[in-house]
Batch of 3 targets.
Target 1
Amino acid sequence: MNIICQISIAAFVSYLIGAIPCGLLIGLSKGIDIRKVGSGNIGATNVTRSVSPIAGKICFFCDFLKGMLPTLLVQYIIKGAPIAAIICGMAAVLGHMFPVYLKFKGGKGISTAAGVAIALAPLPLLTALAIWGAVFFAFRYVSLASIIAATMLPVSAFVYAYFNVGGSVAKSKQTLIFFIIIAVLAVVKHTSNIKRLLNGTESRFEKKGSVPDKGR
């Protein structure tokens, strides 16, 4: 089997893994259709609000693994082709955003993209997570923290690469391009949140029972 066929099959499998609606499955296990409560989003923020904080953490972890595992595994299965890991990571993120199992209506991809990023370039991802935490705890907006962290991911990757810090995949132009695409997708998927942030109607993150926002 040639390399193109291998990458194509791996990307398809990565998409199917990324498309697994973890938030929906977690909600249904508690008798809650997460699509019909809160913001209607299948991501960790709405699961936290509408099910429980523990369920939200489990959702985040599962969505994170959907991105990390395919990206890591393909690096060992298809050796000598780092672009394969990037393609499979992108496929996993697109699977979460546009899952075939839910008629292509999925989440915003932040958790899954973080899983891909940790497999490709750990230091830029950890930097972006630190920025996410700082913004979130300062303003309590999940959407704002996610947007800023996603846009800072390619910036931090460029800085690390410029100073020659990290592995060859982390410093590659392909990885930087991937991070730029993720940043653009994050902004596009959060368009409604950006509008609410600008007009002051975006809700701050609160525990279950509070007014929902359109977070992750």
Note: The longest helix spans residues 53-77.
Target 2
Amino acid sequence: MAMESRSVKIEATKKLFKGKKFRVAVIGCGGIAQTHLEAYKNIPEVEIVAGVDIDPERLKIMEEKWGLPKKALFTDWKEMLKKIKPDGVDVCTPNGVHCAPVVDACNAGCHAMVEKPMAMNPAECEKMIAAAKKNKVKLAVGFQQRYSPNTQALINARDKGQFGKIMFVKCQALRRRGIPNWGVFGRKELQGGGPMIDIGVHILECAYEFMGAPKPVAASGNVWTYFGNKPSKTRCSWPDWDHKTYTVEDLAIGQIRFDNGAILQIESSFVAHIPKNSIMNFTALGEKGGCSWENGEIYCDQNDLMVNMTPTFISNQDGWGSLFKIKLQNWVDACTKGTQLGAPGEAGLAVQKMLDGIYRSAAAGKEVTIK
């Protein structure tokens, strides 16, 4: 009966959008929204019908570059929802302005895509999920790395028993000198944190997906600020960040314990003294094998030999832009065809609980429980 009911819902959803465009309003028209808009160009069933931003220069870009008329440009998303009545909203605002527009959109009957991290804390995530469920709309979180060919290849190997029980995963999201010199990435009150919540979330969410999404039960961690809140003469590709308003960490280290006994460790930094410009990777140790996400390598025993398996080809996807297209296509398909969401709100909540646990542990100076 459950499968039959789902099939009926899928057919009803398809019928609703048959021959019609999926009308999307973008809330927050800054840098990441531009990447979304480039991806939407390759999703023909989508029509961008409105832009919302408090910065008139960004609205000007929506008009001049993306062809939106002035009547489709707003500084208030509530006004936009009332006048435009879009099918879905794509929320690309700073983290502190994720929850409110998503909840308002869901209450207006709109589907919602929200950039990572899902919100500032688990309580906001739960509020967003509740609004989506109440109004029977789709809520997706912008976790593109779970769609990457490397992530999917390692998940496929996991499903075939290549690793056995996964015991330990180590994540790294490190930049040698990469403090953003645009936006509000250095302001804790608007972002919730620094590199851990901004770039650490990328590798954390795909590593967690690879692990099979076990239940996190405890977190420990610490954070340090030693560079970003001071002026610097060191030459780098992203100079002149606003050190006077910098209130986030430079380095965060965390450890998560799961209910199945597995451990995940994560290191994330904007200014790590490492030998290259950046590291974005996770490695895993299982009872039967291990792996590295960065190059898709698998380490195991075969024919009484210790073997390192390096793939010669994983995918011809064209990098970052392709991942955005895939994640947005997944959301659009779920909204218009009733297919499964790859990263629903519940996935965002689980990741948020781990991020929140690390920051709470750093503040408390001890391990904390994740409820």
Note: The radius of gyration is 21 Å.
Target 3
Amino acid sequence: MILGSIASGSSGNCIFAGSDTTSLLIDTGVSGRRVTQGLQAIGRKPEEIHGILITHEHSDHISGLGVISRKYGLPIYATPGTLEAITSCKALGKLPEGLFHEITPWQDFQIGDITVTPLPISHDAAQPTAYRLRSGAKSMAVITDLGTYGDDLIQQLQDLDVLFLEANHDIHMLQAGSYPYYLKQRILGTRGHLSNEDSGRLLNEVLHDGFRAVMLGHLSQENNYEALAYETVRLEVDMADTPYHADDFPIRIARRDSVSELIEF
């Protein structure tokens, strides 16, 4: 399987996930041109995409959806609440109804040789989801835009090979920063975003002997730094009461303005 970030951050998100025979996008929150250029950079073409999995309707996850899906006739997969919110978004333009595929949280569905499990998450959107993907004996998950997590999500993330995980903000930078109070409370709340510390703690819950790599994503431009997210997550892993250490597997950072190095496994 293959995992790579075309863009990740508060300004736009688009993740590539696939196998040897199936190519998927998770969100299209950047322009159609950037999606196309990002796919070309990793040796893929937009017309080869088998489906777009949408996590939720916020603009940094769907702003390029109208252009890219119309141009190439790409199927769109999302929960009923998210689909309703998408169709109400006039900025996307008219989307052919035949492109929409309604999915159900916790219920597996198949795209090519990839089994997709939509995982409900806590975020201030209509019906947001994260995704676990499996092909044969290999599996990965893309988990962003959640303010908290529980045992149900942790259970679904066991035995992963690779994890794409939100590390949105440093709590102290956010609290001392220029954001208005209501926005700080939204981000810090249970329907907001994971801090660097919480990202490391969630990672500790899913580590196992066969774990291969984690990519940290959706970093805030105003309230985080790549090095800070990296070192904070490493520290959480090293300090945890587990047999694992941060040097046991690669920790990579997905950038907002460039395509990441692919994780192939």
Note: The first strand starts at residue 2 and ends at 7.
